[in-house]
Design a protein that fits this description.
Elements: H1 3-20, H2 24-28, H3 39-53, E1 56-57, E2 60-62, H4 76-91, H5 95-99, E3 101-107, E4 112-118, H6 119-144
Helix pairs in contact: 1-4, 1-6, 3-4, 3-6
Length: 166
Amino acid sequence: MNIVLQSSLFTLNKSRILLSNLSDEKLSDVSIPPYFSSVGSHIRHILDFYDCIFNVVDNEVDLTARKRNLDVENCCNTAICYLDTIINKLEDLNDKDVKQQIVVIDDLGLGKTKIDYTFAALLAQANSHTIHHYAIISYILDRLGVTIEDATFGYNPTTPKQVIVE
């Protein structure tokens, strides 16, 4: 399997571990400042981003056309079902799919624009995007008093490891 696909699956499976060990109450808690977003809203956003990737129309992917399935924000089981759908679609991809040239439509702050990509580049972006949201999730969980047993959760693999000198 292509390393980009493997990386995406590895990263997304962290969501499964998190969702399997989180209550619906903690998933949907919006009490943490400064943004008052929930773990569920970030999980939903991650999965909606991946879902967009699989909606290729005329060789284009429109990242601004996300479904925003709000039920995912409030129910761990619903989020796991959505995650499973995304993982199954990733597992069905092959090297030819990943090398495909596509056009991505996105809004970078100045209106929609079209960008030439490969499917692999889009998956790599989605993977980094997921890790970025995991960092935010980690912050929320810390403030909610929830411990994650994964020291790499929310850290990009390129983040330098802090060396403690005694």
